[in-house]
Write a structure and sequence with these properties.
Helices cover 26% and strands 38% of the residues. The chain contains three helices and eight strands; from the N terminus they run ββαββααββββ. It has a single domain (2-135), classed as Jelly Rolls. β5 (98-104) and β6 form a beta hairpin. The strands form two sheets. Strands 1-8-3-5-6 form a five-stranded antiparallel β-sheet, covered by helices on one side. A three-stranded antiparallel β-sheet has the order 2-7-4, with helices on both faces.
């Protein structure tokens, strides 16, 4: 079985935003040469999250607003005693930071509207997405 790894480096521009990395992920999987196997994506950051969803501007704003409704930027968070980003840690923990998807005949199996979105909550930052592919 073949394994392949790449990091996608990117920067966020705002404190809270979504970044669509779909084209970069698709390109990386193509570079891997794996036709059938698994794609593992890991966002190694504690204040940003990774999800699959539609990349429509209104929905991207809705995601950020709903996360703020659930976990406001200002709250009575214990972590804010040492830092002011507890909300970002909590949102990342809620959404998650990794996805695993099958690759079949060279294509990632995902829904028509499922793009790879990073949800930044503590920017602007330099970030990276780890791409690990294994298979034949």
């Amino acid at each position: 079985m073949k394994t392949w790894f790449k990091e996608i480096a990117f920067s966020t521009r705002q404190q809270r935003e979504t970044v669509d990395l779909t084209e970069e992920v698709l390109s990386a999987v193509g570079e891997s040469g794996v036709r059938n196997g698994l794609l593992v994506l890991q966002l190694p950051h504690a204040t940003a999250a990774l999800t699959l969803n539609e990349s429509e501007d209104g929905l991207r704003r809705d995601i950020l607003e709903k996360l703020d409704d659930l976990i406001p930027v200002r709250g009575r968070y214990q972590h804010d005693r040492i830092d002011t980003n507890a909300h970002a840690h909590l949102k990342s923990a809620l959404v998650g930071s990794s996805v695993v998807l099958p690759i079949v005949d060279g294509s990632i199996i995902r829904g028509t509207w499922q793009n790879f979105l990073v949800i930044e909550q503590d920017g602007p930052r330099r970030r990276r997405l780890a791409v690990f592919v294994m298979g034949e």
